[in-house]
Specification:
membrane; transmembrane
Length: 85
């Protein structure tokens, strides 16, 4: 069982990875083309969300969280592999 210090380190690692993914995992541009705007608008209306930017933000935060969790998993597996050698 992990001690509270180890748990705290793991939480800090996930938060740091989320911060890094927030910085580096982003779309290349922030302005939408007409087709992108139409797609976000139709999708948000289909989901019952009034503002398409709310959906956009939720989607990108979810993607960034997934990237952070995947990076955390890779780091933990590499650390376990390193410790067994």
């Amino acid at each position: 069982m992990a001690t509270p210090v180890r748990r705290a380190h793991k939480v800090v690692l996930v938060l740091v990875l989320f911060g890094l993914s927030f910085i580096f995992v982003r779309p290349l541009h922030y302005e939408w083309s007409q087709t992108e705007m139409r797609a976000w608008l139709y999708t948000s209306q289909a989901l019952g969300i009034r503002d398409p930017e709310d959906l956009y933000i939720a989607v990108w935060l979810t993607i960034e969280l997934i990237v952070a969790v995947l990076a955390y998993g890779v780091i933990m597996r590499l650390w376990q592999h390193y410790r067994t050698k």
